[in-house]
């Protein structure tokens, strides 16, 4: 019978070894206290299959990434993005959803679990605001769209930066099946989704 604690300890030890090997092979990335000047900020889902810096081929230290299941503009996520704009000079924020999102699927299916309320309630609000969605794909697009609106309407520093034209908000959905990017645009207050080239 397997010992879960021993398995986790072994996994952690292997991760430490990989970190040390990576640091030794790439000192320019792993250390040296580089300046923190990201060019773009992402509000992305926590799903391990969706890594914004990799998907958009961002160079080292160029992406400021805030990740939360369901890519929602919670208070802490919005505050983090405001920091990226005000303190770091970021002028583009991308709300990045993805196909087969478990958090949006759970909200769309009406899952109610107290332990998940902090994740599901903001998605429920997005879906309520958008009106009925025919399927999960529409719900994912509606969630991205509504969170773009949330960021634009922020009553704090981020909303001010948007209103002053210092930062732009964009939205997209990464299809984890075929790798395509679906751009989410605001057309007369409703989401319009188009596939990138």
Name the shape in a single word. globular
Helices, by number, come to 8
In N-to-C order, the SSE pattern is HHEHEHEHHHHEEE
Strand content: 15-25%
Helix content bin: 40-55%
Number of beta-strand segments: 6
Overall pLDDT: 92
Separation of the first and last Cα atoms = 51 Å
Strand arrangement, largest sheet? 2-1-3-4-5-6
Contiguous low-pLDDT stretches (5 residues minimum) are none
Question: How does the major sheet shape up?
Answer: 6 strands, mixed
Structural class by SSE content: alpha/beta
| Rg on CA atoms, Å | 18 Å
Can you characterise this structure?
A six-stranded mixed β-sheet has the order 2-1-3-4-5-6, with helices on one face. The longest helix has 22 residues. Strand 1, helix 3 and strand 2 form a beta-alpha-beta unit. The chain is of the alpha/beta class. The protein is 44% helix and 19% strand. It has eight helices and six strands, in the order H-H-E-H-E-H-E-H-H-H-H-E-E-E. Helix 5 crosses helix 6 and helix 6 packs across helix 7.
């Amino acid at each position: 019978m397997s010992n879960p604690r021993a398995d986790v300890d072994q996994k952690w030890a292997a991760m430490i070894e990989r970190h040390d090997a990576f640091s030794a092979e790439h000192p320019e990335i792993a250390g040296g206290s580089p300046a923190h000047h990201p060019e773009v900020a992402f509000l992305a889902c926590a799903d391990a299959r969706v890594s914004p810096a990799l998907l958009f081929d961002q160079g080292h230290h160029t992406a400021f990434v805030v990740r939360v299941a369901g890519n929602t503009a919670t208070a802490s996520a919005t505050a983090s993005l405001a920091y990226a704009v005000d303190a770091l000079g970021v002028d583009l924020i991308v709300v990045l959803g993805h196909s087969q999102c478990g958090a949006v699927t759970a909200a769309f299916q009406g899952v109610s679990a107290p332990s998940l309320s902090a994740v599901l309630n903001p998605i429920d609000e997005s879906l309520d605001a958008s009106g009925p969605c025919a399927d999960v794909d529409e719900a994912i697009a509606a969630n991205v769209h509504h969170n773009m609106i949330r960021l634009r309407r922020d009553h704090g520093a981020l909303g001010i930066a948007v209103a002053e034209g210092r930062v732009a908000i964009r939205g997209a959905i990464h299809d984890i099946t075929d790798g395509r990017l679906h751009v989410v645009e605001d057309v007369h207050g409703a989401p319009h989704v188009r596939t990138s080239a």
